[in-house]
Design brief:
Layout: E1 6-8, E2 15-20, E3 23-27, E4 34-38, E5 43-46, H1 53-60, E6 110-112, E7 115-117, H2 124-129, E8 152-155, H3 162-173, E9 178-182, E10 192-197, E11 200-206, E12 212-216, E13 236-238, E14 245-247, E15 252-254, E16 273-279, E17 282-286, H4 294-298, H5 300-306, E18 315-324, H6 328-333, H7 341-344, H8 346-351, E19 360-363, E20 366-369, H9 386-408, E21 427-428, E22 432-434, E23 441-448, E24 451-463, E25 478-480, H10 494-515, E26 520-523, H11 529-542
Parallel strand pairs: 18-25
Antiparallel strand pairs: 1-2, 2-3, 3-4, 4-5, 6-7, 8-26, 9-17, 10-11, 11-12, 12-16, 13-14, 14-15, 16-17, 18-24, 19-20, 20-21, 22-23, 23-24
Length: 546
């Protein structure tokens, strides 16, 4: 049973206390004045009539079992079946973090050679120059990829108009490399994943020789989907409608009553194939037969950032999908910058900084953020000296080395301090977010069928595992509906509470975009650089000039 939450607001110290039935008492410290609110934000009574909606959500909204509120980076849920002992995954419970409260102060920024940055900015070169094992830093991790220029504005049409969705299907989903599944979801011959994007559907199939192939998931007779969901150990794809069937490699096996279809066998001889490539345990597909190789799409900088972290040996600790009432790009952009932490994640600020001094870089189709530490809290005037920041850099590296060595049994002596940081939140065009280092998080964002106002958000947690031991079976795929909270998937641990705050905003953003006049929105010069880069790639893929 969950305990009743009581927390101060990180900026004001005002106390937010759950009092049951989804209600929150909001009371200023040292005052008798109070207000009662529903967790959805409705004021019910009292002299205090305004409250932070994201704090209300955190305090009394949909919740986790108390023992699952552990940082997702270091521990799986106790809901596992017992094959993985919890003690093998030491993690920090949210109650164990100290609370930090300090008044808001505007971040007026500072001018640097690269452009304007937060007042809490540290030059990444400072950490590189003081790394204790600089000889191990990959050259690609030393590169910067700053997006130049001023803030940009983007038309709102692309977020809700049907014509944009339809063009995305033709120009992006039928033309671009995209992650369909993980290899360990289809470990054996005949195992297959049904990958759906918009109204398109594909079968990603493990072949008897161990290779992976992909085909359209459509019967060539009358167009029924061959499979409605993913499965195991199949030997033939047989249409449930009239029984036409194809082998695992997509070759035609049988046309029932073929005497009635003279001349059709040649046309139905092969399910239309789709390009497949595997990288670091991810299975990518591209429906375009003329597309260039996956490695070229990813680029050398991206691939170098993941090379040493054993992604191909990770096991799927959690696999959760949720329907959301917002365009896939609206949802995705909520996870591409840390600028929103000051407003969207007040409870996170209670336990850490505000991420206002996060570093951002882009390299073609791939964007990187937070590779270097962003200590302190610029929006609250909690600043660190360079020496204190460096000391934190070392502590983080040492902590990560001890944890990952304990989890995997591997020596990390050839890792630099930089490589041992907590990890960066990264994105690959068009819709995959594989976080860096050992952060475990991998997001994916997809349109929900043909409705541009709806999307599917997928969360994988990819946990480290010893290379010489059999991996645990992948977590079962959990599907959440529009009105389910992420906390209905306790295997996501504290990430579920954070993600509930993230998606709290996006349905309201979707409504605002459809009604906004003038019909455009702004993206900042630096903190929203990864989103700006996404739109550069998006415009290029779509053939749009703005």
């Amino acid at each position: 049973m969950n305990v009743m939450r009581r927390e101060p607001h990180p900026l004001t110290g005002t106390n937010y206390e759950a009092i049951g039935d989804g209600k929150v008492k909001v009371q200023k410290e040292g005052s008798n004045a109070y207000g009662i609110f529903t967790w959805q934000g409705e004021w019910l009574e009292g002299e205090v009539t305004q409250a932070d909606p994201l704090m209300l959500l955190y305090i009394a909204g949909p919740d986790l079992p108390q023992d699952h509120e552990v940082m997702w980076m270091s521990a799986p849920a106790k809901a596992f079946d017992g094959t993985i002992p919890m003690e093998a995954f030491p993690g920090t419970h949210m109650d164990d973090f100290a609370r930090i409260v300090a008044p808001y102060r505007p971040d007026k920024g500072i001018s640097t050679e690269e452009g304007w940055r937060s007042i809490g900015y540290f030059d990444p070169q400072y950490f590189l120059d003081n790394d204790r094992k600089p000889e191990h830093i990959p050259s690609e991790m030393k590169l910067t990829g700053t997006v130049k220029g001023d803030p940009i504005k983007v038309s709102t049409d692309r977020y809700w108009k049907q014509e944009y969705h339809d063009l995305e299907v033709e120009k992006i989903w039928k033309k671009t490399w995209q992650m369909a599944c993980r290899e360990d979801e289809i470990p054996n011959a005949g195992d297959y994943c049904v990958y759906e994007i918009a109204h398109l559907s594909y079968l990603v199939v493990r072949q008897p020789d161990g290779s992976v192939q992909a085909h359209q998931n459509i019967c060539l007779h009358r167009g029924r989907l061959l499979k409605d969901c993913s499965g195991k150990g199949e030997t033939v794809f047989r249409c449930p409608y009239h029984g036409w069937s194809w082998n695992l490699d997509g070759s035609l096996k049988e046309i029932t009553n073929e005497w009635d279809f003279p001349g059709v066998r040649e046309d139905a001889a092969q399910l239309p194939p789709v390009q497949v490539a595997c990288w670091e345990g991810f299975v990518f597909i591209n429906p375009d037969p003329d597309a260039g190789p996956l490695e070229e799409f990813l680029g050398p900088v991206m691939m170098a950032h993941y090379k040493k972290y054993g992604f191909e040996h990770r096991y799927i600790q959690a696999n959760v999908s949720k329907l959301i009432r917002a365009n896939w790009k609206v949802v995705m952009e909520a996870f591409m910058e840390a600028y929103h932490v000051i407003a969207t994640h007040p409870h996170q600020m209670l336990m850490s900084g505000d991420c206002g001094n996060t570093n951002y870089d882009v390299f073609g189709n791939w964007g990187r953020a937070a590779q270097f530490p962003s200590p302190g809290s610029p929006f609250r005037g909690i600043m660190m000296t360079k020496e204190e920041a460096l000391e934190q850099y070392y502590r983080t590296a040492d902590g990560q080395r001890g944890l990952i060595q304990a989890l995997t049994g591997e020596s990390l002596e050839d890792f630099s301090d930089l490589e041992l940081q907590g990890g960066s939140f990264n994105d690959l065009f068009p819709n995959l977010h594989p976080w860096g280092g050992w952060m475990r998080i991998c997001f994916r964002f997809r349109p929900n069928g043909s409705n541009p106002d709806e999307s599917v958000m997928d969360i994988y947690l990819l946990a480290p595992w010893p290379k010489d031991k059999p991996r645990p079976a992948p977590a079962k795929h959990r599907k959440l509906g529009f009105d389910d909270a992420w906390t209905a998937a306790p295997e996501l641990m504290s990430l579920s509470k954070i993600t509930d705050q993230d998606v709290f905003n996006v349905p309201a953003v979707q409504k605002g975009l459809k009604a906004k006049n003038p019909p455009y929105i702004w993206y900042g010069a630096y903190q929203e650089a990864k989103i700006r880069n996404f739109h550069v790639n998006y415009d290029k893929a779509m053939g749009i000039e703005e």
